[in-house]
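Incident review: delayed structure delivery

Summary: a single-chain prediction request sat in the queue longer than the usual turnaround. Root cause was a stuck worker, restarted by the on-call engineer. No data loss occurred. The affected request and its eventual output are reproduced below so the record is complete for anyone auditing the incident later.

Affected input:
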Amino acid sequence: MHDEAKELKGQNDVDKGFDSNEVVEFARDVLRIEAEAITTAIGRIGEEFVKAIRMILNCKGKVVVTGIGKSGAIARKVAATLCSTGTPALFLHPAEGVHGDIGAVTPDDLLIAISYSGESDELRLILPALKRIGVPIIALTGNKSSLLARSSDVVIDISVEREACPLNLAPTASTTLALAVGDALALAVMKLRRFTKEDFARFHPGGALGRRLLLRVRDLMRTGDRLAKVKYDQPAMMAYAAITKARSGACVVVDEDGKLIGIVTDGDMRRAILRDINILNEPITNVMTRNPKTIGPDALATEALRLMQLHSIDDLPVIDDDGRPIGMLDVQDLLSAGIV
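Output delivered after worker restart:
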């Protein structure tokens, strides 16, 4: 009871000083300050930014991005964005750099150093070694007279009027701006490289976009024993048996040359049997749907999904250039692959 009373008292103390309107207004001020930092910086984007873009495009090696503390977190993200948009990049921790990791940097590389003060001890230690290697340096800093700025080939100004922190101490507006400028660099280079959706997907094969842009019908279609198939002159009973054996939702019907002429679904068979049990002994052509929708094996899985949704079908025959069925695509396969 004593602990519960203390907990309740503590909660009451918090509630006494809690003003919902004040909290909301403070949060809005934070967003305004950070938005203003970016808006103000827009006018500063000019020749230095263009020089940086040229340097990145002309880099024969990789882009090495470095920073310490909060700037280090931004540097990691910038390196990741560069990588995923077509520019080989890596993050170099400056403290680890002076203990051997600088060996990953070559004269063919390019360095992007992010530091608001431009005077951090870690950068002071690593910059001379990088200069000896001869690696070009792009600085993102709020201090254009700093050691970092003086050591760099290009300096991009990321200074802000104030931080969003009420003490004007915690890096907030400055790191937001650094991140935005890093994104602008990566995406400008991406645009100039004519980087496509397909290129992006190749770098993200495990993501939803990669699956949508890379998976083909042939990757998902059911083949071999899982493809239910009967000839046009066989009784409906054989189609029902083929569907059951293949554990499929549908069966393709082919002519004497093995070309597709129709499809019969499990639902078609069940409804036909309910109307007349004797349908099982009749030709499958009496039950099948003629000239069904089809797709080729090299089509994107997303195109198959669009076709199936458009025509409200769950099973889509896959045919070769001669019109012969080589597989069946089930909507459940698309669901399992994360296409939907």
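Verification: The CA atoms of residues 216 and 299 lie 6 Å apart.
Action items: add queue-age alerting; document worker restart procedure.
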